[in-house]
């Protein structure tokens, strides 16, 4: 039978008579039947249906809703975007509400009137389709900006600034702790600038010994020093027409700072041992985890160079200061490492999400990357748990004591999380939070949260 273009509808129902009746009533769908927990999970994995009806009274204990409620949780953790309509006995309103609170889309009380249930199912399919479109749109538009994954207002602000400075030639100084994404941001600036077809050359000023740094940067003529067998171009020349990324600029030795400054003023390089001045056109992006002003005050960094480099300064927030980003980045890293290591881990357990949100991430995104990579490689189950992430409990952030602060922080966090979980769909997020849409909008306004 050619059923391939009908949407899949999974009906979990143990009553054979009802099964038949439902199958017959819903012939506009590709009805898949399951009669207990195990067969339901098999069909769920196989078809990933957008809409599911779930009879809460299932074997081995059909008189009790507990098997059904447990299955509901399992379904939602495996397939969080599926719309589950729970079907209950006619005096089980409380249980129905419990199911909706646990994430069911809607409920329906027996006895079943196929026309009524059809309407609910039809609406569920429409909503699922709409959400799917929103999700795609959201993913394309917001989640990833040239590889930068972010949803927090803090990082959105950084991305907007990047969009503004990229087309210009101004020097950008990126300030942020280790692992916050300085190199990724530098790459994004280059990639959306008119210089993108030319090289972006990165130099790590902290990793090259003092005596080699000059020849690295400016190049050298044959015979300039022992071992200089042939004339070699420096990194600045390689970047001609493109972007020069000076990483860990705070660690550049004083003597070289003077030479770099001269280059920035005159825009010509002289190779070591050479006499010729070679004009070079580069855009400079510098980065450091040091507070450059402090280095200037301590006399370790030239003030005039500091001003040259910092025409625009971008402060990159620590990962723990980006509301909602940890889980979002974690999910995308999970997909990446699943592909890389041919694993098929579906998601994170609740305790893993809580631990990730409470942890202080001293190593920022790089640390998150390492933890997820190791969890993906080592995990034995299809979910990553807090234990897999090896998050040290002593490092979980302390709660502030002032109640208003606690409440505001908790509200902000819950809202961010609901928006992430519903992929930017505000109606859905409001529903998760038990709020009306206008209330959610006013709270988002109060806490400057964007969707
Ligand atoms: N917002 C983000 N979304 C996705 N990946 C990110 C994000 N920020 C950083 N990363 C990833 O995290 C890792 C560390 O980022 P990057 O090397 O740019 O940081 P850094 O600030 O230069 O760190 P370091 O000080 O250690 O050199 C990289 O693999 C990068 O791709
Ligand atoms: Mg770096």
Automatic annotation (TrEMBL):
GO biological process terms, semicolon-separated: phosphorelay signal transduction system; regulation of DNA-templated transcription
A molecular function GO annotation: ATP binding
Lineage: superkingdom: Bacteria
Annotated Pfam families: AAA_lid_14, HTH_8, Response_reg, Sigma54_activat
PANTHER family recorded: ALGINATE BIOSYNTHESIS TRANSCRIPTIONAL REGULATORY PROTEIN ALGB, TRANSCRIPTIONAL REGULATORY PROTEIN
Protein name: PEP-CTERM-box response regulator transcription factor
Upper lineage: Bacteria, Pseudomonadati, Pseudomonadota, Gammaproteobacteria, Kangiellales
């Amino acid at each position: 039978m050619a059923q391939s273009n009908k949407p899949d509808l999974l009906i979990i129902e143990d009553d054979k008579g009802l099964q038949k009746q439902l199958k017959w009533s819903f012939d506009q769908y590709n009805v898949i039947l399951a009669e207990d927990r195990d067969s339901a999970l098999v069909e769920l994995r196989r078809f990933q249906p957008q809409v599911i009806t779930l009879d809460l009274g299932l074997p081995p204990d059909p008189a009790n809703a507990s098997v059904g409620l447990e299955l509901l949780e399992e379904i939602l953790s495996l397939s969080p975007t599926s719309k589950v309509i729970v079907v209950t006995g006619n005096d089980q309103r409380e249980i129905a509400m419990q199911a909706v609170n646990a994430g069911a889309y809607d409920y329906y009380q027996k006895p079943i009137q196929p026309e009524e249930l059809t309407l609910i199912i039809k609406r569920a399919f429409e909503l699922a389709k709409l959400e799917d479109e929103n999700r795609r749109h959201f993913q394309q538009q917001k989640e990833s900006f040239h590889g930068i994954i972010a949803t927090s207002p803090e990082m959105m602000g950084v991305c907007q600034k990047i969009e503004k400075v990229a087309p210009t030639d101004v020097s950008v100084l990126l300030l942020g702790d280790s692992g916050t994404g300085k190199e990724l941001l530098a790459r994004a600036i280059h990639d959306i600038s008119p210089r993108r077809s030319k090289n972006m050359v990165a130099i790590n000023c902290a990793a090259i010994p003092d005596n080699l740094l000059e020849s690295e940067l400016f190049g050298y003529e044959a015979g300039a020093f022992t071992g200089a067998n042939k004339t070699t171009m420096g990194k600045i020349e390689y970047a001609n027409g493109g972007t020069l990324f000076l990483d860990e600029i705070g660690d550049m030795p004083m003597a070289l700072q003077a030479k770099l400054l001269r280059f920035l003023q005159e825009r010509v390089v002289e190779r070591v041992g050479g006499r010729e001045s070679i004009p070079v056109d580069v855009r400079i992006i510098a980065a450091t985890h040091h507070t450059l002003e402090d280095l200037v005050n301590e006399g370790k960094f030239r003030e005039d160079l500091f001003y040259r480099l910092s025409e625009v300064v971008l402060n990159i927030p620590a990962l723990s200061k980006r509301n909602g980003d940890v889980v979002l980045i974690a999910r995308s890293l999970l997909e990446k490492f699943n592909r890389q290591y041919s694993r098929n881990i579906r998601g994170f357990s609740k305790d893993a999400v809580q631990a990730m949100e409470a942890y202080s991430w001293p190593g920022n995104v790089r640390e998150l990357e390492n933890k997820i990579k190791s969890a993906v490689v080592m995990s034995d189950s299809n979910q990553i748990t807090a234990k897999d992430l090896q998050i040290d409990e002593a490092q979980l952030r302390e709660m502030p004591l002032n109640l208003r602060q606690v409440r505001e922080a908790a509200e902000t966090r819950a809202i961010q999380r609901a928006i992430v979980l519903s992929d930017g769909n505000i109606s859905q997020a409001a529903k998760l939070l038990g709020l009306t849409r206008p209330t959610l909008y006013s709270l988002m306004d109060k806490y400057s949260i964007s969707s």
